[in-house]
Fold each of these.
Amino acid sequence: MKDIQNIVILTGAGVSAESGVATFRGPDGLWEGHRVEDVATPEAFVRDPDLVQKFYDERRAKLKTVQPNAAHQALAKLDEKWLGDLLLVTQNVDDLHDRAGSQRLLHMHGELNSAWCLACDVRSPFDEVMAAAPACPHCHQPSCLRPDIVWFGEMPYGMERIEHALAQCDLFVSIGTSGAVYPAAGFVQTARHYGARTLEMNLDPSEGSFHFHESRMGKAGALVPDWVEEILRDV
Ligand code: OAD
């Protein structure tokens, strides 16, 4: 791995599955029990804010019962030891990468533990129940908080930083994502366009599996620690 300096890692719900956080697609996925249009669009929030708030309140409450797993921990170790550039881009709105200790981390789809105030436009740390219509921690207006989650039809966070990192990276690694949602699903093509080697680790082939130079199939909790050991061997 001596020729690798700069790494971009993309994670999805599969990296948190072994911690007990539900994925979105598949038999027990969140989108089996809920229609995306009912809970994950700005239109849904206007139509039925209570339903949307309760959906994210449940997910936020669940975070207090789960812990980072071996995959989150291995990625945090890589972040600590890797001397080149590294950016961990997660589509996940849980805080398991943060709690495992990853520093060079970007939550492109927002965070459950953040509240966005529609009155003052400030985002504040938040780990309570939003359906109870609490006041904004910053401007103290009541009933003006929304989950700081990127909904369908909204622009993901940090795209400029991500695109810059993809253009500079020698290795792009995708972990635990179905590759069903753009722009994240297109990162592999961008990285390849700029000459990066590409590796996928997932339980089963993602929708864009054929774009990767290498695919490793299995559970993130086993695959990721092995890969991190492998890549750190030469450091
Ligand atoms: P998905 O639920 O679409 O995909 C999860 C992937 O993880 C699937 O391909 C599974 O096979 C795989 N998987 C499950 N368990 C695994 C394990 N233990 N180890 C490794 N892989 C495993 O979730 P995402 O791809 O993250 O967006 O979904 C992308 C976006 O769609 C989410 O961020 C969310 C959703 O709608 C928004 O809400 C904006």
Amino acid sequence: MTANPSILLTGGAGFIGSHTCLALCAAGFEPVILDNFSNSSPAVLERLQRLRGQAVVCERGDVGDTALVQTVIERHGIAAVIHFAGFKAVGESVAKPLKYYANNLGGMVSLLQGMDAAGCRTLVFSSSATVYGDPASVPITEDFPRSHTNPYGHSKLVGEDIMAAMRIANPAWRMGVLRYFNPVGAHPSGLIGEDPLGIPDNLMPYVTQVAVGQRPHLNVYGNDYATPDGTGVRDYIHVQDLAAGHVAAVQALLGRGESFTVNLGTGRGHSVLEVVHAFEQNSGRPVPYQIAPRRPGDVAQCYANPALAHRLLGWQAHHTLDDMCADAWRWQSQNPSGYR
Ligand code: NAD
Ligand code: UD1
């Protein structure tokens, strides 16, 4: 490995990309962001500069522009790419499937073409626990059968398959598939965090907006699941742990060089009501809630067996649910309107 290898982060201005950007800097890498700001704000760049003490290079553009991808890789001497860029709203993907297939799969194909043309064949991909569909049991290991229930999930599953096909075609590709469970929390500085546009779909950003007074109450989607308190159980993982997982993935690919697919989760499940109570304790704010009908497509329980990531990457999550709530609250209370 050369000193300070440059890593391209497609979608690096987003929630997970921005935290990974700082983790890469701390580990001695030079991040280069490629983002079209379709779901993020350029204001994040100024925050990253403050936290790093130095500007982060950002190329504004679309990963669907293959020539641009090739140019950016060659211009910056990119050693590896982390592919975050994509759309992620499950409900919207059901209403607008082509928007999701075009950006998530068209983006993947374009990226691979640009990387191939530039001779850069080391890639880490943001996949999701959504590829396990409704798991037959928990905890989930990587060899569980994959399925999908919506176009977003389908795009992640096919994205993984496209990568596998490329490895068969040319074994020089080194690829890491990271299946994230439920990323939450924020940088402990409170300067960067999750900034959803409109009404949040996901639990933690909804809870923080209720706590800050932007929404009257949380709807808890179902309390009749076969779980200890009847509410859905998920594997919430601090975005700082997730960012560290990306650093470990890049180090493994640039070092040992073997491709892998791993879960990034804590291995612990927490119910919706556990999250609500932990958030109240860590924020000192009430989170009023009402029990609402189940959300279509939700599963009762979903949590990881993260042992393979520990074995292959030497990575494991360290932050607790209290850390996740405290950091999410610091970000939300210091930035009630996000980056706007
Ligand atoms: P995000 O929306 O905050 O970040 C995605 C970034 O990609 C945004 O900055 C957006 O502007 C950019 N982008 C989108 N399309 C682009 C394109 N065509 N060209 C260039 N930039 C583009 O999302 P996130 O939460 O940081 O998620 C990152 C990745 O992780 C996504 O692929 C998502 O599907 C995946 N993922 C996220 C979660 C989660 O809960 N956040 C869970 C599992 C997987
Ligand atoms: C959702 C997506 C999944 C995606 C993941 C990360 C669905 C069906 N799945 O997972 O594909 O990878 O986000 O972005 O959308 N909840 C409430 N009230 C709310 C919001 C959520 O009770 O207002 C509950 C849900 O029923 C669930 C838990 O909180 O039990 C977590 O929900 P959420 O944050 O949306 O994540 P997932 O459904 O696990």
